[in-house]
Amino acid sequence: MKVMLRNTPAGLSAYVPKKDLEEPVVSQEQAGLWGGTITLANGWVLALPEMAADTRLPITVEARKVGGE
Questions:
Q1: Which pLDDT does position 68 carry in this prediction?
Q2: Tell me, what's the pLDDT at 46?
Q3: Is the dihedral of CA 23, 28, 29, 32 positive or negative?
Q4: Superfamily of structural domain 2-67
Q5: CA–CA distance, 38 with 6 (Å, rounded to integer)
Q6: Choosing a second label site near 10 at 20 to 30 A (CA), which of 27, 33, 38, 51?
């Protein structure tokens, strides 16, 4: 699914346009954002693609839902 990641004053946020859902990122599997999973405030766990560590935000990526409701 397409997910837009961006920095907000409250921290990292993910927006899923198809679901019209915007949730804060509450945890990351790795210190770096790319190539691991992130957990959103609603419980979804998304696997992010491998990308360069210096990739700038905001960016839309193809993520895979691997957990949550």
A1: 78
A2: 97
A3: positive
A4: NifT/FixU-like (2.40.50.240)
A5: 13
A6: 51
**Over the Cα atoms of the chain, what is R_g?**
11
| Average pLDDT for the chain | 95
Domain boundaries, the chain: 2-67
Q: How many Å apart are CA 36 and CA 47, to the nearest integer? A: 6
Secondary structure in 3-state letters for the chain? CEEEEEEECCEEEEEEHHHCEEEEEEEECCCCCCCCEEEECCCCEEECCCCCCCCCCCEEEECEEEECC
Distance set, CA 26 to CA 10, 13, 39 (Å): 11, 9, 6
The pLDDT value given to residue 37: 96
| Token pair listed for 50 | 């491998």
